[in-house]
């Protein structure tokens, strides 16, 4: 697994203790390069292997619906690890301190972890690197081609990163071996006792501190989340939904995209496995190509953006042309201005936008086309582009099951400040940032039906009467 990993710290541990894998982005047993690397290192040294997950402090926690989705998925994960003699530690609090504490008490000989370019993850890792006295590795289990190999700079757009990814794809589009049982037991005294018994009640109590976005009903029970469900949903999509994807995916009423993003976001599903399954399927080539473009190129472009742009959720992240055009139109009169609460409640003058916000709140999911439209309108109705970007990121991070993801930060930056896009015809407020309106939506799909589905008959009538 060293081809998908890099050594972040080389240290002589001075012990022959176990290997610890800190799982923080890829919550799965299969096709997990970080876990496979940990198993390899344990085998080389004839030592045990354990996994730790840490829920961060309240201000960094995902929202309640996201946490519910995560915690319910961690229970089957613990059971699968236990069957492989790999103890599972569930901690709560400052991740760097918690993992360092476990590493110290277990006298580990190596630490492995998931690659994650987002700021909180980077902060925790930097602190941990200073305190842990053992070699530390990170593995990219999110991207098909490891993010740091694709490019060493912030890419302009899909067109510039695509050839770089495609050049390396033949080397990395290969399935990973199954995880085998730990080569040795976890030492009796190492870590919290008894090893591998996660303290679920502490985690549940901690979850109560999260932003209170209620869990959503299409994924409320433990049977609907986690790695097993990720695999089943992928199978169902590849067998039934992939055919026709190229033509139908942009229609929010047909709802023909995979809806795999929550499972991909938590790493319950490996994007590599999804790509291999799609590539092998009997669906028409144009459907496979369209899906792989989103799953590989667009998704890896988002991680490239966050890796090379530390201010990925601020206006500074956008290109000079975009900053200049937004500045030029800063003083333009807005026809409507809404504050965060009005947006969150979905109470604007516009039924189509309200329907999108309701879908987001009710389902924890928003169709890809509607995400773009929804974010563009927030730019149109906010006092400043900074407030618009902030509202898009906050609403998406709190309400979307797949929120707090580099895809979300890149999507927000694309919509509000032209990241990965080019300039368009100049107009008020937007300047030359690409504009979208409800007439475009009406032309593309049955927008009145979308409004009826998510905002009700009254709003659909109001929408129809405003042609
Ligand atoms: P499918 O069309 O089935 O695509 C398969 C997978 O490819 C997706 O699950 C996703 O992992 C990836 N993908 C698809 N489109 C994109 C894209 N444009 N950029 C990057 N990856 C993509 N995606 C998230 O995962 N989390 C978010 O929080 C998020 N927020 C967004 C906010 C805005 C304002 C915008 C414009 C886009 C956002 N996206 C986000 C990207 C995209 O809209 C979703 O990934 C996609 O709609 C998820 O639906 P799906 O799984 O049915 O996608």
Helix count, DSSP H or I runs of 4 or more residues: 21
Helix-strand sequence: EEHEHEHEHEHHHHHHHHHHHHHHHHH
Q: Which term fits the overall shape?
A: globular
Q: Residue ranges: pLDDT <50 for 5 or more in a row?
A: none
Report the count of strand segments.
Answer: 6
Helical content, roughly? 40-55%
Give the overall pLDDT as a whole number. 94
Bound molecules: flavin-adenine dinucleotide
Measured by DSSP, the beta-strand proportion falls in 5-15%
Please give the largest β-sheet.
6 strands, mixed
Using only CA atoms, what is the Rg? 23 Å
- Secondary structural class: alpha/beta
The first-to-last residue Cα distance is: 57 Å
Give the topology:
Blueprint: E1 5-9, E2 19-22, H1 33-45, E3 49-55, H2 64-83, E4 88-92, H3 95-106, E5 110-114, H4 119-131, E6 136-139, H5 147-150, H6 158-172, H7 200-207, H8 226-241, H9 245-248, H10 261-265, H11 271-280, H12 285-308, H13 320-328, H14 340-345, H15 351-363, H16 368-380, H17 385-399, H18 406-417, H19 438-444, H20 447-455, H21 457-465
Parallel strand pairs: 2-3, 2-5, 3-4, 5-6
Antiparallel strand pairs: 1-6
Helix pairs in contact: 3-4, 6-12, 11-12, 12-18, 15-20, 16-17, 16-18, 17-18, 20-21
Molecular structure report:
With 467 residues, the chain is of the alpha/beta class. It is built from 21 helices and 6 strands. It has a 6-stranded mixed β-sheet, sandwiched between helices. Strand 5 (110-114), helix 4 (119-131) and strand 6 (136-139) form a beta-alpha-beta unit. The protein binds flavin-adenine dinucleotide. Residues 249, 257-261, 264-265, 294-295, 298-299, 302, 368, 371-372, 375, 392, 396, 400, 402-403, 405, 407-408, 411-412, 414-415 line the site of flavin-adenine dinucleotide.
